[in-house]
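Annotators were shown the component list below and the corresponding predicted structure, then asked to write short factual statements about the assembly.
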Amino acid sequence: MSLKLTSLAKSFGPVEVLRDINIEIERGDFLVLLGSSGCGKTTLLNCVAGLEETTAGRIEINGRDVTQIDPSDRNVAMVFQSYALYPTMKVARNISFGLECQGVSRAERRRAVARVAGLLQIADLLDRKPSQLSGGQRQRVAIGRALVRDPEIFLLDEPMSNLDVKLRNQMRQELRELHGQLGATFVLVTHDQIEAMTMATKVAVLDGGRVQQFGTPHDIYHTPRNRFVAEFVGLNKMNFLAGRIVFRGGAPAVAVGDHVAPLAHYAFTEGSPEEGQRVLLGIRPENIYRSRDRLEGGAYFRAERNVLRNDMTGGDLQVWFEFEGQMIACRVRSSRPPDLEERNTFFLDLQNASLFDAATEKRL
Amino acid sequence: MRRHAHRTALLYGALFVCALYFLSPLYVMLVASFKTLAEVRGSSIVSLPEVWTIQPWIKAWSEACSGLECNGIRPYFIATFEIAIPAVALSVLLGALNGYVMAKWRSRFADLIFTLLLIGSFVPLQLYLIPLAITLRELNIYGTTAGLVLIHTVYGIPLTTMLFRNFYVALPDELVRAAIMDGAGFFKIFFSVILPLSPAIAIVAVILVFSGIYNDFLFALTFGETGKRPIMAAVQNIVASSYGIKEYNVNIAAVMISALPTLLLFLVAGRFFVRGLTQGALKG
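Structure shown to annotators:
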């Protein structure tokens, strides 16, 4: 166990920013705290770093309770969103400043800087001031500053948000490689779900100061625990259909309007649903097909509709049609666009669909 | 195009007249200080000296009488620097420290204290005289250089605090947080991270505080050490000394000498002054 948060809470005066946070990750995990701005993810990171005091709960790093310990003694290092390089110091001193504060000898500092510079390929930048560096180079130096201290946990606060898209992809890749090389624990804060999906071994989706779901990227995407997570994750928003549970021959099925599909394949989280229970059926746009052959099981809705609108996104086309009073988005290959004049047949595959209680919005 | 040239000519003409207007007293003083006393009294104030002499300047520097002492303004000049240098250094350093605390280590009281400081610096100086006199007496430094250093340091702190605070507020908080993560303490952050970013604003503070102290008349006259009064009080004394005839040329030279340091400071550091006032805190 590398990092363990137990019933962590944080308030600023009367405002509760974090509530009952419970997260546990192992050494070598890459935890991403995912959420929109204001959800408390950066505050949570600052609490782990020790920059904010917690109101309640425990923080353990490597089995040691660090809740009351100074940031510099927690064996963590942080990369800030603005990089926060010391503007008056050269890159080398920026990297070694932490060691300087710890009273490490000059010779040893120089060795440590050389090691980090080699690892990040910034050896030729060591004599420059931060103002003479490009965005990507600054980012590297900021990572180097964290790296040099050889911490148990790396904390990264939206480290890629100031880079352009191309550089961001490259840094993402480099960060993953670095994570693999070091075998250390990473905690990264982001609002970018692609970043979360591509880099994380564990994702914690935060909203309203609570962990909405904590799990692998696969879990988060395919079995969202509530409607918020289902809606938040996924580049193309999940479609929601209002329906109800019906029983056919003793087995549960879902009915949306006149359409009924069996739920034999569906793994209910607790017990079986009730007859007539009102539900939300969540179907991702990529699980709606135009040919029967692509269906993964026997549970589906069939709809013959006119396409109302389509949005070109490159390789894919987002196609919109109406189904039982709802606008439904469907993803099709843009090389095979649907006929806008004619009716098209769509198959809404329920094999990978999610069911939520209509009132509590929790997964069934 | 022609119209444009006309307007430029008009503009520069007007500026030239203004410059002439403001410089003419300086010209009159300059020529008078190089005339003999007889010529000052006999000739037109705008005419150049017939016989150039630097005697008035020498006399003003080392022989002019202030009260019963006739050592010129030199001792007062030195006395002023004995007060100004420590007072400027202290109030700028303490102001920087205050500003750092107020901008980066916020507490509930920071804004209150800052407001009080601001109000304090707008109270007319005369109101402080009696409390200050009592305080200095109790501290046993009444009428000494140390007393004036204390007064000017304390009086400079609100201004320097305000300057540094406003400068430091614009520095990103993450800079301090990064240093905390690096294990730097309160003073280590101040001296290694914050202070090296401050030369521009420090120059502004030095210029403002120094010229304030140098031009101070009220405290100098009230609390100055007899025979070691700061320059403004001393110059006034020399000019007002009423034994025998008034030596206008010597008085003028004394005034000119006393005006030189602040003038030089602005000329040398003026460039930085403007930069410090206009610079957003941090680039890159």
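Statements collected:
1. Chain B touches chain A through 20 residues (CB under 8 Å).
2. The longest helix of chain B spans residues 2-33.
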